[in-house]
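Still learning. Any example?
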Amino acid sequence: MEGKPVIEVKDLVKKYKGSGEEALRGIDLSVREGEFLGLLGPNSAGKTTFTSIVCGLIDPTSGSVKIFDRDIALSLKDVKKRIGLVPQEIALYSGLTVKENIYFYGHLMGYHGEVLKKRADSLIEIFNLGEHLSKLLLHCSGGIKRRVNLISGIIHDPELLILDEPTLGVDIQLREMIFGHLAGLNRKGTTVIYTTHYMKEAEQLCSRVNIIDHGVLIANGTPASLIASNTGCEDLGQVFLKMTGRDLRD
């Protein structure tokens, strides 16, 4: 793989208080500059725990995490400025308007005045939000909330973008819009980590895929190589089921 290491995780373990088992069990993972990495797994496999640790939202039980060659335990404040996070849950303020939410996150990331306006206006146009700017988020559709949620994570042009199920519950038109923008960011050099339950998304977007189950990485490779190395599988969805089983997860 080409590119400098953006993320280097070694022997990462997480056990939540009161839990009988570890959520992560010794994860080793390296992500290089410019990759579009898909992180796939069933419910409760450890995907959100992993991304939360990488973003500095929760602490690991043990192991090390380096972002941009800096230990996040020692340099979290500086590292956070270079990371964008789009969580699965809508992380916005329902009592603010669409525009106020966008500007709030812009201010939070250090943008002000004309610089903020120019950046916000560009994203508002890209995601077709112009006619919705004065609406309280409380009264907006799920699709509008998803768009604003995405903007809040990319308004500062992060070098590393982490997305947790960003297309959950959206229609095909918005999904294609999101795909196009993420692919464009990646082409410009943004490193992307993308968690999803939609195997077609991962197959279409990701340059490499890791599958995690029961807190352990069980597969790593390009979508094409994983399909080719699993006899009888014609797509990534079939590979996923072969490796993780068909039992329902909570």
About this structure: The chain is about 35% helix and 25% strand. The chain has a mean pLDDT of 94. Residues 5-82+158-244 form a domain with the Rossmann fold fold (CATH 3.40.50.300). Residues 172-187 form the longest helix (16 residues).
